[in-house]
Amino acid sequence: SLKMASDSPESLMTLCTDYCLRNLEGTLCYLLDNETLRLHPDIFLPSEICDKLVNEYVELVKTDSIFEPHESFFTLFSDPRSTRLARIHLREQIVQDQDLEAIRKQDLVELYLTNCEKLTAKSLQTLVSFSHTLISLSLFGCCNIFYEEENPGGCEDDCLVNPTRQVLVKDFTFEGFSRLRFLNLGRLIEGVNVETLLRPLASLAALDLSGIQLNDVGFLTQWKDSLVSLVLYNMDLSEEHIQVIAQLRKLRHLDISRDHLSSYYKFKLTRRVLNLFVENLVNLTSLDISGHTMLENCTIPSMEEKMGQTSIEPAKSSIAPFRGLKRPLQFLGLFETSLCRLTHIPAYKVSGDKNEEQVLNAIEAYTEHRPEITSRAINLLFDIARIERCSQLLRALQLVITALKCHKDDKNIQVTGSAALFYLTNSEYRMEQSVKLRRQVIQVVLNGMESYQEVTVQRNCCLTLCNFSIPEELEFQYRRVNELLLNILNQSRQDESIQRIAVHLCNALVCQVDNDHKEAVGKMGFVMTMLKLIQKKLADKTCDQVMEFSWSALWNITDETPDNCEMFLNYSGMKLFLECLKEFPEKQELHRNMLGLLGNVAEVKELRPQLMTSQFISVFSNLLESKADGIEVSYNACGVLSHIMFDGPEAWGICEPHREEVVKRMWAAIQSWDINSRRNINYRSFEPILRLLPQGISPVSQHWATWALYNLVSVYPDKYCPLLIKEGGIPLLKDMIKMASARQETKEMAR
């Protein structure tokens, strides 16, 4: 079912929402005075649509770097007569006091504010506007919402130094929030009196006090008939806490887990505490004790523990206190405890570090609010993916993608997540992944590259991109990928390995793509960047993969793209070509790449005069005799000269070498090549070759072109015969056979 889910297209609702948010002006809104967004007066939208617009907007701002947030977005929902909001989830820096203020007339039922650090006590007042309808509220990680700014009186000077001081609001309570049932106060700021804050609430069903230190939780018993879920993650517990919890007999979900790395805990779990929970909390279906140290051995003797099939029946439990359960738990959190490695655990879902299933359960359970735990769980998944084989690949991928999206600015998650992605997308898993899923991977990888200049993240992201078919799979993010890679290559200090991977990716991205793509990338400074890399390598006198890939990338990006060819010449490309030839006379691969590129330049009539110097022509003529890389260097040198000859004797503006002498050397070179040579070259179009056929000004150019076509169609008929026919080569060859000026051997070959 997971495969089907990942493969199905987005719903029409999602596509429309996305389109409207990216084109607000063209769809729902108009611009007032060129700056403020206003809703068209004839638009009326129900909460199903408005909730989705707001929640997707938050998601887009957070995960799509190209998406521009709008100052006045929330004002679109200020009037409940035209737009209704009911359930909204807002996150991080995206939301400010004025945004909540803008929607204060809405009858919100559910409001999740997660890590909204920009909200201040002004927003507490706005919350009161929702008090009569609100059922669920989360203020998780809103660390400034209980602070207001106070202007201190007194001397003028002091005001300039410290214009606003933050003061804790002491008098706010949930008075009047008569319908509130679900409340998350996780990571609430110290100094707020939780008991006073909550006392007015009549019947709480779920309460999350993660990361809050309370010595006395006796006040919780006022909801002992209604509380079904209690989360006390990272609260330092004592015997008093345990006694209070044991009185909350309606509890179905109890989480007393902790991050065992965060600070010193006096409290240790014992057999008696677990027995107390099992006896008193008879409705319990979910318990999390992750990160706890067991003071005593709670396990049954090891002989008995190892026996029989793995079972989730409480009667067979390896953890003795859980033998008293009426039925298996739905969820048991044992991450970073010794208990998760036991054989018989009475729960359908266990979070732990024993195997893939437990690790995935941990990532799933903790991603939203506990990145510190999640990054360690992803690290375990990384080891599983690297060393063993992942059996729940799609689930693993989706969980890592979610974690990377959710914690875009968390370095640990970005490092471990990007590393795990590399192993989860490699070729052995390829068949199981849908296009949609692979696109999601690419999106989070690019987000990571944008947010983090950190070497490890950059390297992991670049390596992961190498697992994709390039350019095909990256086409939908073409500009963005290229910009990011050029950005990496333009940094003054570079990590060798990243540089190598980035140049390789750049080269692959401009290979076999349309000319408009190449032009766009050329305008981004691609040619300049590659030439700078070549310049650096020349200065170090090294000819490595970076040097070869850079020339190869220039060869690809200049293919049938005159603008890029011109850039190559303008940025002293020819000077670098000569210097490389001189510095690395033995490097065949390098020579082939450089000459392939010059072949592209020579195809552009307007640029050929710049190649018409004694020095260049001598170099090309000498390379006709080169045996480097089979016939490739000689073939490309001859191609460059064929285009130059095609301009006729009057274009030959130099005394040395003589035109006839060069022509003679060209004939000799072509005659020396084996007609059945297998080739290291890839033609997308024959157009530049075909234009050398219908002319009498340079028979040798005609011969080179005919030889090229003959070789390609005879060695690779399936690929090149259709291309020759499609581009009208047949009539051109037939006409040429009738030409008096054509050489006999050329006609033979044409025939």
| Overall mean confidence score, pLDDT | 91
Q: Span between N and C termini?
A: 60 Å
Count every helix, treating DSSP H or I runs of 4 or more residues as helices.
32
Q: Which class best fits the helix and strand makeup?
A: alpha/beta
Strand order of the largest sheet: 3-4-5-8-9-10-11-12-13-14
Poorly predicted runs of 5 or more residues: 1-5
- Helicity range of the residues? 40-55%
Name the beta content range.
5-15%
The Cα radius of gyration reads 35 Å
Shape: elongated
Biggest sheet character: 10 strands, parallel
Tally of discrete structural domains: 4
Strands, count: 14
What would your notes on this structure say?
The protein has 751 residues and is an alpha/beta fold. The chain has 4 domains: 23-147 and 170-203; 204-298 and 310-353, Ribonuclease Inhibitor (Leucine-rich repeat, LRR (right-handed beta-alpha superhelix), Alpha-Beta Horseshoe), CATH 3.80.10; 468-601, Leucine-rich Repeat Variant, CATH 1.25.10.10; 611-750, Leucine-rich Repeat Variant (Alpha Horseshoe). Helix content is 47%, strand content 7%. The chain has 32 helices and 14 strands. The strands form 3 sheets. A 10-stranded parallel beta sheet has the order 3-4-5-8-9-10-11-12-13-14. Helix 7 (194-198) links the parallel strand 8 (182-184) and strand 9 (206-208). The longest helix has 17 residues, at 47-63. It is elongated. The two termini are 60 Å apart.
Name its key features:
Leucine-rich repeat, LRR (right-handed beta-alpha superhelix), 14 strands, 4 domains, disordered N terminus, Protein zer-1 homolog, Leucine-rich Repeat Variant, 751 residues, LRR_dom_sf, elongated, Zyg-11_UBL_adapter, ten-stranded parallel beta sheet, 47% helix, 32 helices, ubl conjugation pathway, alpha/beta
